[in-house]
Model the fold of this input.
Amino acid sequence: MRFNSNTPADAIFGIVYNSIKDEYKKVEKLPILQLPEEIRANDPNLIFKPYYKLASENFILQIGPRVISIASYNNNYCGWKTFNEEIQKIFKKTLETNVISEPQRLGVRYINFFERTLYGNIFSNINLSIQLNNAPLNNEETVIRTVFDQNNFITNLQIVSKAQMLVKNTVKDGSIVDIDTFTENKDSLIANKLHITLENGHSEEKIIFFGLLNADCLNKLIPQY
Done:
């Protein structure tokens, strides 16, 4: 979540940390803190970057003067129900500190990895075809990115056919489907509506993901809706 704050930038981390320190005991300063404060505060590419990374047993939390985000620890996704419960808990504790004066953007991002030995080239598994001179473009290394707007959400979709990911301490070859779905709609970012907006964003992401995969790929995944 990106937000505006009336709290001094250098005080936000300490205030938020005090509310969650019992669970997130591992704290790491991120390299951005080596830059001068004036650059961090005024560079458009840095304004929404986190300054600290915290870890609990199952989650990673990143905090900056205008952003807070949570992710699964070590690519070990626990499922939406458990993940959403943790998000709502962090949101509640953060909002109670009053450091957030106005939420600006809320989103959910899934980076889905398809191991090559199981799925082959991702472009053979999705409902998307690309042609060059009327011939299918299904090269070993292809990257596609598109942005679209629907149902009050904006989605950045990126598909990478050749990628590597660390899975259980082993580097695996495969493909990535990266879906970043978010909203900046002010009516959806009222504090007491954030849980609904997040749930709607997750539903939108699921529609895109399962609509993208073809029947053969879905049969391999055996999804639970």
